[in-house]
Every structure is written in C-alpha cells, then in structure tokens.
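Re: weekly structure request thread

Next one in the queue (118 aa):
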Amino acid sequence: MRLEDEVPAILKPNGDKNPSDHITFHMEVPVGLTPLGRKTIEVLGLDSPAHEPRLSHLAEIRQARETSIDLMGSVDPIARQYTVRWRNFVEEAVRPERPYSAMVAAYLVANPLPDLPA
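Done, posted below.
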C-alpha cells in the first residue's frame, strides 16, 4: 500500500473532509456525528478537561452576543458602536483559523445573532 492511499483514522483540520460533517457541539461539548468524528474526539481527547479553555471562550462569545443584542436597540451612538464591535467579535470567531471556531459556529446556529435594525 502506498502512503497516499492510506485513509486517516481521525480528521485532519486541513484535510479534505469537513470536520463539521463529523463533529458538532452541544454548547461546549463535542459530539461525534459519525464514527470518524467519534474516533477523532476520543483520540484527541477533545472532551477532556485539558480542553477546558473552550468553556471560557464560549462564555466570552455568549457575553458578547448578549451585550450586542442588549445594545442594538439603543439610540445612543456610542452604544451602537459597541453593538457593532461585539457583533464583529462574535462573527469573526467562526473563521476557521480562530480557536474553537466549530464550537462557536454550532453555538450561533442554535443562537443566531438577530439582524441589526436599520
């Protein structure tokens, strides 16, 4: 067998498979959707306490989302600026190069940001 013919036993972040097809998140807890996803979680220990920084990251995302929603109806121009700043922070957190981006994306699917008023 040639090396290029081998099938990886776990997901590669830069591989040809989309990790979100195999792993989702229930809040901060990774959940395998497929055998490959479950094996990746197991081998990498994605659900272990070693990955606890994701808890504080999700708390920060939640707080930014809630603050953005709380401020979005304000007529105060400074509050509106903060709304945009917090929204940008949350929206950028789903970029693939950001830490825990898949978790944030799953969180935002379940808790979308409302549209800004015109």
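The CA atoms of residues 56 and 106 lie 16 Å apart. The two ends are 60 Å apart (CA to CA).
Next request, please.
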